[in-house]
Amino acid sequence: MIEKQKSKNILSTNDLIIRSALKEVLKKKHAKDKELRIIDELGVQHGSVRIDIAVINGIMHGYEIKSDRDTLARLPEQTTEFNTVFDQLTLVVGKQHLYRAVHIVPDWWGITIARINSKGKVVFQIIREPEDNKEQDKVSIARLLWRNEALRILEEQNQAYGVRSKPREFVYQRLADVLEADTLKEKVRKTLLVPRKDWRFGLTPV
User: Fold this and answer.
1) How far apart are CA 203 and CA 172, in angstroms?
2) Span 153-165, mean pLDDT?
3) Predicted model pTM
4) How would residue 125 be classed by pLDDT, with cut points 50, 70 and 90?
5) Sign of the CA dihedral 84, 88, 94, 99?
6) Could you give the CA distance from residue 68 to residue 96 in angstroms, rounded to a whole number?
7) pLDDT of residue 12
8) How confident is the model at residue 204 (pLDDT cuts 50, 70, 90)?
9) At CA 84, angle to CA 80 and CA 86, rounded to 5?
10) Class of domain 15-128
11) Would you state the pLDDT for residue 195?
12) Rounded Cα–Cα distance for residues 57 and 164 (Å)
């Protein structure tokens, strides 16, 4: 799983080994949380982009991985989309990408370096702690829900009139219109904490 680069006398990271090690760290970090769900590849904006790991507990914290073997080509687009949704965001990056990555993500994103130590294990070094996101968009947050989930919340609020047979975007817009931001985030967070029965990778039910 770990290969020595021929051109440089260093051990390079890849997505798989970082993801596996990071999930173990996160499980230990949040072991005492009363509510916790760690989700791989959570779709944002109907799956147009996917955050590598989403931690759902008291907040929604997204972790995007860029290993030494990845490129940063999509990071600007991903950053823009992730900013609309998550309460906090952290970039977990291979050492060779650190300088460029710092200049791509906003200064409120957390940054953590992932590297291979002398024993061949992935270790993490926090460069910058994440701060609260002030760029969230209510409609984008609502899009984390499946249509039936969003409609159920509207039914609970007695606000489903006129949108029951409408396309999903009307449902999400109604949610954003009738709920305050904190209430909407809480409803979405509570929904994501419960595993979906028909969850399939890459599938976003309408």
Assistant:
1) 18
2) 96
3) 0.89
4) very high
5) positive
6) 6
7) 85
8) very low
9) 110
10) alpha beta
11) 84
12) 30
Tally Cβ neighbours within 10 Å of residue 174. 23
Beta bridge partners of 186: none
Single out the residue of 206, 141, 204 nearest to residue 175, CA to CA.
141
The residue assigned the tokens 């409120």 is: 108
Cα–Cα distance measured from residue 206 to residue 148, given in angstroms and rounded to the nearest whole number: 8
Instruction: Give the CA angle between residues 22, 111, 126 to the nearest 5°.
Output: 70
pLDDT surpasses 70 at 1: no
Domain(s) labelled CATH 3.40.1350 in the chain stretch across: 15-128
Structure tokens given for 123 = 């270790």
Written in H, E and C, the secondary structure of the chain is CCCECCCCCCECCCHHHHHHHHHHHHHHHCCCCCCCEEEEEEEECCCCEEEEEEEECCCEEEEEEECCCCCCCCHHHHHHHHHCCCCEEEEEEEHHHHHHHHCCCCCCCEEEEEEECCCCCEEEEEEECCCCCCCCCHHHHHCCCCHHHHHHHHHHCCCCCCCCCCCHHHHHHHHHHHCCHHHHHHHHHHHHCCCCCCCCCCCCCC
Closest CA to 39 of 86, 105, 98, 106: 86
How does pLDDT run across 50-91, given as a tens digit for each residue? 999 999 999 999 999 999 999 999 999 999 999 999 999 999
